[in-house]
Amino acid sequence: MSQALFETKFDTNFETTAETAFDITRDTPRQAAGQVMTEAEERASLKDRAKREGFNWGTAAVMFLFHVGAVAALFFFTWKAFFVACFLWWISGSLGIGMSYHRLLTHRGYKTPKWVEYFLTWCATLALEGGPIFWVATHRIHHKYSDGPGDPHSPNDGKWWSHMGWILLGKSLHYDTTTLARFVPDLTKDKVHVWLTKYHWTGNLIVGPILFAIGGWPWLLWGVFARVVVGLHSTWAVNSITHIWGTRRFATKDLSTNNGLVAFFTWGEGWHNNHHAHPVSARHGLTWYEVDMNWYGIWAMQKLGLARHVYKVDLDHLPPKPALLRDVKAAAVIAAAAGHD
Questions:
Q1: Residues 6+ apart with CB under 8 A from 270
Q2: Are 82 and 117 in contact (CB under 8 A)?
């Protein structure tokens, strides 16, 4: 979402392996406390640093224009335009953000043929949430420092900050590109993902004119502007709302909760406490009533032979740990937790 990212060249000469990078997505005890504390101290004042760097006018201008377009769409409503927007929302939000950026690229909860991976990644770029390197690095950092010093978007720094303030203040992600690349060596070594990161904004430049040629202003405003704005706020709600309001099945050492409303608007990403407890699981909805459209998509791909090595957690098969809690306020759990993982 930052112009700075468009011109980024990523150094692919890393000593870190992809497997090592994936370890940061798990809630495991830290083994080198002294080194981690140093890293945390270096990142403890992300919000203050962002404020010093100032307001990100470029990103803010783009956000403003898209929100104006989304409001304008209300005056050009047609059912055809609405259903086109819903279809593209599923393409970008479910196939793209949920199934690709999050569960495939970030956590490697399953594997696909490369052409499928690249197609799903392109679908994600339509959400206008940044390229794969941008998005995946941010999310892996979030899991490593979840709701602690260094988390890019924790509500501990303010509700508005966790929703979209972190996007509007300071430089892209408030980390330099070398730091970002260190968290995604698997992606920075892939030329296609580097290209998709650099040109992630081009997808809507292709889709937009096609929609306008077919359906005029209603299709353009609903299929691009309204759809992108709804998708952005839905994803940001995972960062903010599901770390503030909801229920907790697992006593994870962060503020994550399960929120059905957010799950509805994110195709299943709102079962966030389940996810933080078992981050590599491709399945987030662990009961029949936790509807998880992204998981249903992965399941369908597996049946079609397009997904393999699918990792999933079944609630009935989990050992009876004392960590099982229901309907407990996240803040109370954090206050009682011993330290931060």
A1: 237, 238, 242, 246, 258, 259, 260, 261, 262, 263, 264
A2: no
Instruction: Tell me if 270 sits within 8 A of 262, measured CB to CB.
Output: yes
pLDDT for 57: 86
pLDDT for position 333? 38
Q: Which among 315, 320, 302 is positioned nearest to 109, based on CA atoms?
A: 302
- CA atoms of 83 and 219, how far apart (whole Å): 9
Answer yes or no: are the C-beta atoms of 153 and 240 closer than 8 Å: yes
- pLDDT at residue 36 in the model: 42
Q: Hey, what are 151's tokens? A: 């988390």
Position 76 scores a pLDDT of: 98
d(C-alpha 221, C-alpha 211), whole Å: 9
Structural contact between residues 172 and 4, judged by C-beta atoms closer than 8 angstroms: yes
User: What 8-state DSSP symbol labels residue 54?
Assistant: -
Residue with tokens 């393999």: 308
How far is the C-alpha of 193 from the C-alpha of 174, rounded, in Å?
Answer: 21
Contact 241, 160 (CB under 8 A): no
Structure tokens of 159? 């509700």
Select from 122, 64, 78, 120 the least CA-distant residue to 211: 78
**Residue type present at position 53:** E
157/48 Cα distance (integer angstroms):
10
DSSP-H helix ranges across 189-267: 191-198, 202-220, 227-240, 260-265
Q: Where are the domains of the chain?
A: 66-336
Question: Tell me, what's the pLDDT at 49?
Answer: 56
Residue 8, pLDDT score: 37
307, 310, 316, 318: CA torsion to nearest 10: -170
Rounded Cα gap, residues 238 and 255, in angstroms:
11
Residue 182 is predicted with a pLDDT of 87
What does the pLDDT read at residue 103?
98
Low-confidence ranges of the chain (pLDDT < 70): 1-53, 170-178, 317, 319-341
pLDDT digits 0-9 by tens, 302-315? 999 999 999 998 87
pTM of the model: 0.81
